[in-house]
Write a structure and sequence with these properties.
Chloramphenicol Acetyltransferase; 6-stranded mixed β-sheet; 30% helix; globular
Length: 1083
């Protein structure tokens, strides 16, 4: 026996015990202060299991443990609190120190409890986990820190046997490590990957052995003082060291990108913890490129993402300066015609191939409503013509040459005659919604062949009963709507800020169109430049990513129907939208900050984990993601379609924790970022794949961060805001698209997601349920609600995510079985009856096998000196059959509609025998065995179609008694057809038989009693979603049609019916083995 007491039981100690190799060693972890008479809790440890954290267990007998929070209230499950120990061993007090006694003892419910000063939490299994000392909670630079959490993090390193973390001089955290093999770099990297920056120790002091006091505990006073003069003593990103001149330049760039006025962002602070996100990080990178003049080949964005602090960025950028790297600039080519870009080719082809020409899918709309002021129509027109003149992509045509198969773009002069449409009005929100929806799907809104890719329209607000109120077309006034639309081939999401910035500038300064600026880079120039890039490395990268992927395979999503390969999609969408409260939104962002990942990467990880569970363990997942693809600084202020759609393939290890998956996805995203310019059509061509039947292109992911400037617009004194509707409408461009939206300006619901699925495949209710399951995944990761079973992101396998909603797990408990008044005497068979009937028909055909499988006989004999009246028995059975209608219910299969129907036989039908009451005799054992065999194996004993499903057989010894009394040598057999009777039913049968035989009556309410008929009806109305998901998950990789490899002597052909003959063997375990078996089961 191995007992640990006095110090926390560390995980590495388990490894040490295992290495010693003591056979049958029993390990106990005991906890308790001296004031509770040494120990008050205990936990038995199984050293052969994988252990992630060792509990201190449960209280000893006659002890009680209470966990109190800082408000002296009992803590809930998984909530940290101070442990109070009560019970027979609690001391009476400190001798002569009543002051200390008063502080240490607390009376609760009339019982003394000792205030241990230890922080614990209770898990869902009722086990206590030691978290550390209450007096080890400190504040450092305004942040509350639990030193025990840092210590537990370090103790997860197997080479560390003990550690202590202390606050030093109110400025630093110092970690003292007991180890022979650890090094400071390893320790720091481990902490950086598991702890937030403010909890990473400044100094790691490695000792062979920590000093102990006389009680065997770590003597903190004897720990050596840290030497801050050593070059390795402080982490290079220590937060309180001043910024140098170069770091100040980076700090200024950060503030510009983040639009913040922070005087001092600490040099060790992650970009993503101060409001940064994926798009802003790309903007930051391009600022670096512009200021320090380097290109992507010299220094890619990947290392900046992996090292997201000011100090780390300064180190990276200094290499550019030291090596004097110069970027190759892209300049205008002074052309008006040229080949289309890769992105334009993809959009053009997608619109032609995948969708019907009757509905537009790439009309991108902005709906802006005047909330204050007014705007001159002519001034707006002038400003729009200015923007069209400047951004030539908004007047560029796309024409496909059938002879050479080339898509060509040409800049037109359509802007000179451009005008604003103003011929529609609306009175209310419904009318406005209809106009916007019709515009969204209008296939005639644009004409790419002539360069009509931009549309502007004014929708006048018409007030009912006052038609002359708003007929002035010279001004856009209060409540009018400005509708602006682009074709996606000329516009992407990043273009919106450029457009509205140019529009605002033109409106507010009354700018007019001038001659072309021949030196400005245009989108058509980009289309040429991108084709001159050497993409050899990217081609090899993507080939290796996808070379073994099964492109024909489709995700096993819970679709309601399938689409034929020849079918055009309707674009009709089924949508689910979920908004998260502030707690979950902040927890999501905090997780991203702590683990140095972008919200895009974290959202993608959650989607992968969700799809892994939703597809019941599909571990090779490939989905499409959208990349901004503005990979050069010169492209930041150009409007156009740059977005690339790329396959993100991951191969999941089901044993990974969520943290492991996050790290894997982060590395995948960073590796893809360097090759995001490689066009999708080239990826598919390299792998000889036809784009029209590719599966991963139907599952799409995107993460949108709303800019603080995108919601409002001011044009020459008129204030506009985006129009939002409670009910969103979208076209379904893909079968399954998940879009996260993060809006930092919202006070509530800053984070939300929108799941848009094709209605060709998914019903609305199905998508709603999928959305709720994804929301439940979020809750398991980020919610603090005690009723949610939280996932331990560090240790728990992703396969432990639960997609069964709480209400679904309660669906059986919530169902109410009661009498169905509309059901008289006929109903569909129950699921069990259907299965039994099917088995009997398929596996055992009476004309062939002659063996019934569903006769269920129960054989009884009387005790000595007891008798039983056959007449009274018969009367009692009649009462039972009257009450329990299933014993007089027929089962009939109707071939015309393939339905198995059960029907109760009417008691008043004198021509029908409700049950069989048989009598016979025996003299020898052989005769008796023959009778018993017939009860079991006679295929003609019952006739379910006629409702003959119950028989009582009296077997007299030698002769039938003249007074019809059974004695101890006689036998009594109750036999039932299994489709109407199971083994637990026998307890009910015997209870009612005893009452009916003894009293001669059986009381019941025929109008309210639940019948089996009612159960069958209710059962088929039950929602079994949760149960269905459970069994699909459990059996997803089970080969149900593959028999067990048993040592057969022969095999049955598939067309052979089974005989039903068996070879039984029985044996007795013996009293000792039976006793041991029961003891093991109970323990």
């Amino acid at each position: 026996m191995f007992i640990v007491v006095g110090e926390p039981f560390s995980v590495p100690l388990i490894d040490l015990i295992v290495k010693i190799g003591i056979i049958n060693c029993v390990v106990w972890n005991l906890y308790g202060p001296a004031e509770a008479t040494i120990d008050c809790t205990v936990h038995s440890i199984n050293v052969t299991n994988t252990i992630q954290g060792i509990p201190i267990g449960t209280p000893f007998s006659n002890y009680r443990c209470m966990i109190m929070n800082e408000y002296s209230q009992q803590s809930i499950t998984n909530q940290e609190g101070e442990l109070f120990a009560g019970g027979v061993g609690v001391f009476a007090g400190y001798l002569g120190r009543d002051d200390l006694t008063a502080k240490a003892l607390l009376e609760i419910d009339g019982e003394l409890f000792y205030r241990t000063g230890d922080l614990v939490r209770m898990n869902n299994n009722g086990l206590l986990h030691y978290q550390g000392r209450k007096d080890h909670q400190i504040k450092l630079h305004g942040q509350r820190i639990e030193l025990g959490e840092i210590e537990r993090c370090l103790l997860n390193i197997t080479s560390i046997s003990a550690c202590v973390v202390m606050k030093w001089n109110d400025d630093h955290l110092v970690a003292y490590i007991q180890s022979f093999h650890a090094n400071e770099e390893e320790l720091r990297e481990h902490c950086q990957s598991h702890l937030p920056p403010h909890m990473i120790p400044s100094i790691f002091i490695i000792l062979d052995k920590l000093p102990l006091n006389q009680n065997g505990k770590v003597d903190r006073k004897q720990l050596p003082s840290p030497d801050f003069s050593l070059p390795t003593s402080l982490s290079p990103d220590q937060s309180d060291t001043p910024l140098n001149q170069f770091e100040e330049r980076i700090h200024t760039i950060w503030c510009q990108v983040l639009h913040c006025n922070q005087n001092h962002i600490l040099k060790n602070t992650s970009f993503f913890s101060v409001g940064g996100h994926s798009l802003l990080f790309i903007e930051l990178y391009h600022h670096y490129q512009s200021v320090f003049n380097f290109d992507t080949h010299s220094l890619s964005i990947a290392p900046f993402l992996q090292q997201p602090t000011i100090f780390q960025h300064s180190q990276l950028l200094q290499t550019v300066i030291i090596n004097y790297v110069k970027a190759t600039q892209w300049h205008t080519l002074h052309i008006n015609e040229g080949i289309a870009s890769f992105a334009q080719e993809r959009i053009f082809l997608d619109e032609q191939v995948r969708f019907s020409s009757d509905i537009a899918i790439y009309n991108e709309l902005f709906t802006l409503q005047v909330v204050q002021g007014s705007l001159s129509f002519n001034r707006l027109l002038q400003a729009l013509r200015y923007v069209l003149n400047k951004q030539k992509i908004l007047r560029t045509s796309l024409v496909f040459n059938n002879d050479n198969g080339i898509l060509k773009q040409c800049i037109t002069d359509i802007h000179k005659t451009f005008t604003i449409t103003m011929n529609r009005t609306f009175q209310n929100e419904n009318e406005l919604r209809d106009i916007i929806y019709q515009t969204t799907i209008n296939p005639n809104l644009f004409d790419l062949s002539v360069g009509r890719v931009f549309h502007a329209e004014i929708l006048k607000h018409q007030i009912p009963l006052n038609e002359n109120e708003n007929n002035n077309n010279e001004f856009i006034t209060n409540a009018d709507v400005l509708l602006i639309a682009f074709h996606h081939a000329a516009f992407d999401r990043a273009s919106s800020s450029i457009f509205f910035k140019d529009l605002s500038l033109a409106c507010n300064t009354n700018a007019i169109s001038e001659e072309d600026d021949d030196e400005s880079l245009q989108y058509i120039d980009y289309s040429i430049h991108e084709r001159l890039i050497d993409m050899t490395t990217s081609r090899e990268f993507w080939y290796l990513q996808l070379e073994e992927y099964n492109f024909v395979y489709r995700l096993l999503l819970p679709v309601d129907r399938h689409r034929l390969s020849t079918d055009h999609r309707s674009t009709s969408a089924s949508i689910s939208q979920i908004s998260f409260d502030n707690e979950i939104s902040q927890a999501f962002l905090d997780y991203a900050s702590i683990h140095h990942v972008t919200p895009f990467q974290l959202g993608l990880t959650i989607l992968y984990a969700f799809l892994f569970k939703l597809t019941h363990g599909d571990d090779d997942l490939c989905i499409s993601c959208l990349n901004a693809n503005r990979y050069r600084n010169e492209l930041q202020n150009i409007m156009g379609m740059f977005v690339s759609t790329l396959p993100y393939r991951i191969q999941i290890d089901p044993h990974w924790s969520f943290d492991d998956l996050v790290k894997y996805v982060q590395e995948k995203c960073i590796s893809i970022l360097e090759h995001s310019h490689y066009p999708l059509q080239h990826i598919l061509a390299d792998l000889h794949i036809n784009q029209s039947n590719i599966s991963f292109l139907e599952t799409m992911y995107d993460f949108i961060t709303v800019s603080s400037h995108s919601e409002e617009l001011s044009l020459d004194g008129a204030d506009f805001k985006q129009v939002s509707f409670e009910q969103s409408f979208e076209v379904a461009k893909f079968d399954f698209m998940l879009t996260f939206v993060y809006n930092p300006m919202f006070e509530n619901n800053r984070l939300s997601f929108r799941l848009t699925c094709s209605h060709d495949l998914f019903d609305e209710i199905t998508v709603t349920n999928i959305g709720r399951r994804l929301e439940y995944c979020f809750q398991q990761l980020f919610s603090s609600d005690e009723i949610i079973n939280r996932i331990d992101t560090c240790f728990t396998s992703i396969s432990k995510f639960d997609l069964i909603l709480p209400e679904e797990s309660q669906e059986m408990e919530d169902i109410m079985f009661c009498r169905q008044s509309y059901i008289i005497n006929e109903a569909p068979a129950s699921f069990v009856q259907l299965r039994l009937w099917h088995n009997e028909c398929v596996h055992f055909t009476p004309h062939i096998s002659q063996v019934p499988i569903y006769n269920v006989p129960f054989v009884y004999s009387l005790d000595s000196h007891h008798t039983l009246s056959a007449q009274h028995l018969r009367h009692a059975l009649h009462l039972i059959v009257t009450k329990h209608e299933s014993l007089r219910t027929s089962l009939t299969f109707y071939t015309e509609n393939d339905r198995l129907i059960q029907q109760i036989i009417d008691m008043n039908n004198n021509n029908r025998q409700l049950f069989t009451f048989a009598e016979s005799t025996y003299q020898t054992v052989e005769q008796l065995n023959e009778i018993l065999h017939d009860e079991k194996c006679n295929p003609h004993l019952f006739d379910a179609a006629q409702g003959h499903v119950f028989q009582c057989h009296l077997i007299y010894y030698k002769s039938i008694s003249s007074n019809h009394l059974l004695s101890h040598k006689d036998l009594l057999i109750f036999n039932f057809h299994h489709a109407l009777f199971d083994f637990p039913s026998m307890n009910i049968f015997l209870h009612d038989l005893n009452q009916a035989y003894t009293t001669g009556q059986l009381l019941y309410d025929d109008d309210t009693n639940l019948r089996y008929l009612d159960y069958a009806v209710i059962e088929q109305q039950m929602s079994m979603t949760g149960a269905s998901m459970f069994w699909l998950d459990v059996l997803h990789d089970c080969k149900l049609d593959q028999p067990l490899s048993l040592p057969y002597d022969r095999y049955r052909l598939s067309n052979e019916h089974r005989t039903g003959r068996g070879t039984p063997i029985c044996f007795d375990f013996g009293q000792d083995l039976s006793h041991d078996f029961l003891i093991h089961a109970s323990s």
